[in-house]
Amino acid sequence: MQRPSLTGGFRDAPKDAAFAFRAVMNTMAKPGEINSVTGAEPPAGLSIAAGVVLLTLCDPETPVYLAPRFDLPEVRDWITFHTGAPFVAASAAHFALGTWGELPLGDFPVGSAAYPDRSATLIVEVDDLRSEGATLSGPGIKDSAALSLPDRAAIQQNAALFPRGLDFIFTCGDRLAALPRSTKVS
Amino acid sequence: MTQIEQDKNAPDTVMSDYNFAYLDEQTKRMIRRAILKSLAIPGYQVPFASREMPMPYGWGTGGVQVSAAVLTPDDTLKVIDQGADDTTNAVSIRRFFEKTAGVAVTEATAEASIIQTRHRIPEAELREDQVLVYQVPIPEPLRFLEPSEVETRKMHELEEYGLMHVKLYEDIAQHGAIATAYAYPVKVEGRYVMDPSPIPKFDNPKLEMAAIQLFGAGREQRIYALPPYTQVVSLDFEDYPFEASKADHLCGLCGAEDSYLDELIVDDEGGRLFMCSDTDYCVARQAAGHRGSDAAPTLEGVA
């Protein structure tokens, strides 16, 4: 019997997750940097990078929101089997997975002024990820960096909430980039 | 030879009874999520569920947990305690990760990909591909001014840092200068006042660096971070500007004039020796032929 949800996880979880986390951490620390990751084979059109991020960061303590395009039985089964993360509405999510257009940006927790860390991290599947387009500056960036972003205005609005706000991880194939709330976009 | 003696003589054996880098995967995920949030909000202290480690609080349990969450099998680890690679704390942490993670270790700053430190920043300039992990005793810069966590959290929330300036002003009123010599408070990106851990204020200008800086406080259960090139400003006044100070001497061993110095009492007649606190920096300079006034005479020409 075919059980695709049981396969496609890390083969050597401690080491695969360690390499994956360093790639994710470097992108979050250096907005605009694009890194490749390996180790996950997620189902149903999910990118390798999105799968790796889910396996590296999610577990039963992190409720996940799935945008409609990814809210499929095979995706749910795969995430449940490999991470145990519960599925919730956007307003209760620690992590979210979807394409830019499908993610209800206004609904996710952005943290409070006292606890700005209690905010969601959005894993955004994009068709194209390049070091060109919007100009980035801020912590982690020497002078300026460039990254193809789906929607400059919404991201500027998010940055204006600092220290509250959402953090984004853009995934495309086996590559990923990150955009924390601290980055100024122009 | 007893079993214990055999073990003592084989410190390089990698233990296979523990998970890679000691901590279990769920703990590492929790710490990793805190690290990502701390990088997204530079200078803000992210609470995390600090674990009991096989060493006492005050010996770097916060730094060790951060290092364990960040280490990969390909890393080369350097551990320093007050700049020195060869002190008890540094040796035992280095050996801990040799045993539980099987990573390569080094004393050379340039060869390390992860450097865990207690109370110093290495003299050599760090690169973008390096990570500096600090052991932090008290992460809250306002704690000695305001003991209540409820109050200090409110102060950070409202960006109300007047109390810190009053403290620095009282330094000037009492001593004629800002007397704070270590754990000198900084403001990060114009928002959060942060304790850079008890590094000497000589090191404060180096906080704006190319490497990723992660701060772990185990007992106090906080992680905070500085991404590369983050703006870090030491608090001061226009008429009493911040000054990075050090002992006004040269290193007695390598003659360096630009490094932070330890003062050693060498006899009971007032004799003293100033030497680099960063042992790797000092040893490398001596190997390159630099000699200070107190260096041992070279053996060249003797044999």
Automatic annotation (TrEMBL), chain A:
InterPro entries documented for this protein: PhnH-like_sp (IPR038058), Phosphonate_metab_PhnH (IPR008772)
Any one Gene Ontology BP term: organic phosphonate metabolic process
UniProt-listed Pfam families: PhnH
Name listed for the protein in its UniProt record: Alpha-D-ribose 1-methylphosphonate 5-triphosphate synthase subunit PhnH
TrEMBL record, chain B:
Name of protein: Alpha-D-ribose 1-methylphosphonate 5-phosphate C-P lyase
EC number, as in UniProt: 4.7.1.1
Organism: Sulfitobacter delicatus
Described function: Catalyzes the breakage of the C-P bond in alpha-D-ribose 1-methylphosphonate 5-phosphate (PRPn) forming alpha-D-ribose.
Keyword Membrane annotated: no
One matching Pfam family: PhnJ
Superkingdom of this protein's organism: Bacteria
Family: Belongs to the PhnJ family.
Keywords attached to this entry: 4Fe-4S, Iron, Iron-sulfur, Lyase, Metal-binding, S-adenosyl-L-methionine
GO molecular function: 4 iron, 4 sulfur cluster binding; alpha-D-ribose 1-methylphosphonate 5-phosphate C-P-lyase activity; metal ion binding
GO annotation terms (biological process): organic phosphonate catabolic process
Catalytic activity field: alpha-D-ribose 1-methylphosphonate 5-phosphate + AH2 + S-adenosyl-L-methionine = alpha-D-ribose 1,2-cyclic phosphate 5-phosphate + methane + 5'-deoxyadenosine + L-methionine + A + H(+)
InterPro entries tied to this protein: PhnJ
Upper classification of the organism: Bacteria, Pseudomonadati, Pseudomonadota, Alphaproteobacteria, Rhodobacterales
